[in-house]
Specification:
The chain has about 350 residues and is α/β, with parallel strands linked by helices. The chain contains 13 helices and ten strands. Strands 3-4-5-6-7-8-9-10 form an eight-stranded parallel β-barrel, surrounded by seven helices. A two-stranded antiparallel sheet has the order 1-2. Helix 7 links the parallel strand 8 and strand 9. It starts with a strand and ends in a 20-residue tail after the last helix. About 45% of the residues are buried. Bound molecules: flavin mononucleotide. The site of flavin mononucleotide has 22 residues, from strand 4.
């Protein structure tokens, strides 16, 4: 699988998630089987580029290639400038966000709101491609199925994007109106795939190896992208890779292995954010990791009372050691607990 001229390790992608898929998390996902990971959205507003938040989001130190940066905004010229700026800072692929339903993004007429204004969406795509193409940087597009149930125009936008020179399209199988509610549907993604020659990526509610296989089969997509199911469980990528290759489930990771991954992640995380911000933002990653495990909810509540990185690390370490006395491996995915595909989704 390629994006433009850039080869990828596999067709399992980590979704961009603001506040989650920072460089430490992307690196972890790539280590544990993701062939590709897109950075959190970076604003096209020049006045914010030097802010701490944006510069952290643009941090790619030591990240495995390719470096993909997602940009969001409303003005074609500003989006083009943002693409150029990010290329100068190491981006090898530029992803345009037309999928984010966040109010902050949509009230400024960006993210998925752009799907309501096809001419403006196309102007943005053309402006970004115009600065990226001469630098041999592929441009990709991430969108939803449409603005609302009655206006599912993903196919029309995707066709126009392909004609404008976009190298890959990702479709999250929900409308803007749905937010993250209801269920993702995959028929529109299949229609986009059938209409395009460039690679199409299916996204939305993929949380088990069975579901991954079913979505690939139903949509004919070239790749799948996983967001929420990787929170606290970044090894889902290698579990899916193994299942797609062999039809067999990989056993869950050993508890001591999961502990080592989490501690390495935390170390990297504190390194990027510093002590105070690092301790605060590490809580959600620790919470996601322990919540599904025996007594994880109790530990999560306790951990939220700790306010130094040292205290977090030693609490996590002790908690996993105690778990390891009771449990050798974390539970593997159960197909029964995570059903494959409902008729409404197909
Ligand atoms: C916390 C969070 C932050 C997100 N931030 C972004 C973002 O910055 N850009 C984007 O295109 N999508 C963003 N998304 C959407 C995801 O990329 C993905 O499309 C969505 O979560 C559906 O996939 P999933 O069901 O595998 O989670 C975000 C989702 C979540 C849950």
């Amino acid at each position: 699988m390629h994006i433009g001229h850039i080869p990828l390790a596999n067709r399992l992608f980590a979704a961009p998630m603001a506040g989650v898929t920072d460089r430490p998390f992307r690196q972890l996902c790539k280590r544990l089987g993701a062939g590709y990971a897109v950075s959190e959205m970076v604003t096209s507003r020049r006045d914010l580029w030097n802010s701490l938040k944006t510069s952290r989001r643009a941090n790619h130190d030591g990240e495995v290639d390719p470096i993909a940066v997602q940009i969001a905004g409303t003005e074609p010229a500003m989006m083009a400038a943002a693409a150029a700026y990010n290329i100068d800072n190491g981006a090898q692929i530029i992803d345009i966000n037309m999928g984010c339903p966040a109010k902050k993004v949509c009230t400024q007429w960006a993210g998925s709101a752009l799907m309501q204004d096809e001419p403006l969406a196309l102007e943005i795509i053309e402006a970004v491609v115009a600065v990226c193409a001469p630098r041999h940087v592929p441009v990709t597009l991430k969108m939803r199925t449409g603005w609302c149930q009655a206006e599912r125009n993903a196919v029309s936008i995707a066709r126009a994007a392909e004609r404008a020179g976009v190298s890959m399209v990702t479709v999250h199988g929900r409308t803007r109106e749905q937010g993250y509610g209801g269920q993702a549907e995959y028929a529109t993604i299949a229609a986009v795939k059938a209409a395009l020659r460039i690679p199409v990526v299916a996204n939305g509610d993929i949380d088990t190896p069975e579901k991954a296989r079913a979505v690939l089969a139903t949509t004919g997509a070239d790749a799948i992208m996983i967001g929420r199911a990787a929170q606290g469980r970044p090894w889902i990528f290698r579990e899916i890779a193994h299942f797609l290759e062999t039809g067999e489930h990989l056993p869950g990771p050993e508890v001591r292995q999961a502990k080592a991954w989490l501690l390495e992640h935390l170390d990297d995380h504190y390194g990027l954010y510093g002590e105070d911000a690092g301790v605060r933002s590490a809580r959600k990653h620790i919470g996601w990791a322990v919540r599904p495990l025996p007594d994880g909810e109790i530990f999560r509540a306790h951990m939220n009372t700790l306010d130094t990185s040292q205290a977090q690390v030693s609490a996590v370490s002790d908690w996993f050691d105690q778990l390891a006395d009771k449990l050798w491996r974390l539970p593997a995915w159960s197909q029964a607990a995570h059903p494959a595909l409902t008729p409404e989704q197909a």
